[in-house]
Amino acid sequence: MISDELTEAILQDEDNTAPEPSTIPDDENGTAAEAAEAEEAAELEEPEVLEEAAEETEETEETDLPPSILDDIKKDHALSQPVVALTFDDGPSEYTSRILDTLQQHGGNVTFFVQGSLVEQNKTKVTRAMYMDCEIICHAWDHPDLTTLPKRAIKKQLVRTLNAIREITGKTLPMFRPPYGYVNEKVIQVARKLGLAIIIWSLDPKDWDVKDADLVYSSIMDNVKDGDMILCHDVYKSTADAMSRVIPELIRQGYRLVTVSELLRMKYGSLIPGDLYY
Hints:
Strands 2, 3, 4, 7 and 8 form a 5-stranded parallel beta sheet that branches. Strands 5-6-10 form a 3-stranded parallel beta sheet, with helices on one face. It has a single domain (66-277), classed as TIM Barrel (Alpha-Beta Barrel). By secondary structure, the protein is an alpha/beta fold. It is built from 13 helices and 10 strands. It is globular and about 45 Å long.
């Protein structure tokens, strides 16, 4: 674990960050273009906290998911039983515990894409989720639209969150979900440099919009299919209410509730940093 001082030194904000290279006009001698190229390279310089992972990513070009995740799952069973990955963004919150209570009662595992700024104050919930074999994955530090930020700020959002998760769970996974699902070339470049795959979703019941447990339940149960990655948010009471029905009903219909890593390993085997997965 690196020291807080080193992390802060690596990730400190630069209020006077120079404009993006594409905004710097070329001059007759090409010096501006050369400076822009050098600036972009420096901007994506890998922080020491993830240097080892980045070097490994450059060598392999693919990121293998931890084999231990599926050690206890027989291949024929995985192929014969439909699976879904329930995912929850933006927490932890007071409603995270209710979702964990439902899982503890009925079984299954889910994935939480957390805001780094909320992790420490909800350490008990994060620890409980971890011990229930749920996954804690990076969302961002405080939920900005990453596409509006310079690369250095994107990197800070991700690395600070990864460090907050690692501080409690002792590990991080090589992936993240961008807030709102918004991605552009800057986000992809930073993700690739940090060795992170980009996780989106395949089914959105719009719990963030409708805030109605019945509508969320119906949207999921009327549209779910084998292999879906379902987007929800553990920051709404209505979502926690819906999960008290969704989780047991999915299980009753024969679905196995798996984590994002489990689902992606079944579908892809390995991940390429910077690529999008649904």
